[in-house]
Amino acid sequence: MLRTEIALHACCGPCSAAAVPALRAAGCEPVGFFFNPNIQPSLEWLRRLEAFEIYAAQAGLLWQFEPQYLPQRWASVVGSGDRPARCAACFRLRLSATADWALAEGFAEVTTTLLASPYQDREAILRVGREVAGERGLAFREDDYRPAFKEGQATARELGIYRQPYCGCWLSETERYEKRVQEAIARTAGLHRQR
User: The whole model's pTM is what?
Assistant: First the structure.
C-alpha cells in the first residue's frame, strides 16, 4: 500500500498511540509535531514531551517540536474566559502553528491527536482545524481516533510512559480539582492552630 505523509499535531504520547496506528492503517505515514504551550507547569510540559518522545521512538515515528516552552504565548491568546471560548483559542494556537510547520515542510494534509480524546470538544477541533488548514491551502483530516483511545492508554501503560490527568492548562487543572478543593475548605473551615 502506498503511504502518504501527513503532518500530525501531537498533544501527548497516549493520544499519539491511538492516532498513529489508525493513520497507518488508513495508508498514511504521520510525521509528528509537538507544539503545546498550553501545558503548565513546565514540569508537566516536560513529562508530556518525554512521553511523546518515548512513544515516537517505539513506533518509529519521525517528529519535530517547537524547541521553546511558550506558556506566555498561550496566556496572551487564551486569557481566562469561559471554557468553550478559551479551548477554541487554544486549539487555534496549536493547530495554526502545526499548519504553518506543515506548510513549510511541504505537507498537503494535517490532523491532530486531539481527535483521540473523548474529553476534548471534537466539533470545536474540527471547526478550527478546517479553518486553519484551509487558510493555508492544506486539507484537514477529520478521522475519529476516539475508538482507539483505550488502546492508546494501554500502549502508554505497557511502555511505562506518563498518562496525564488533565488537558494541560492550569485552568483545566483548577476546574478538575475544584470540587476536591472546596471539600477540603469546607472540611477544615473553622479549624485553626491552638497555642
Answer: 0.86
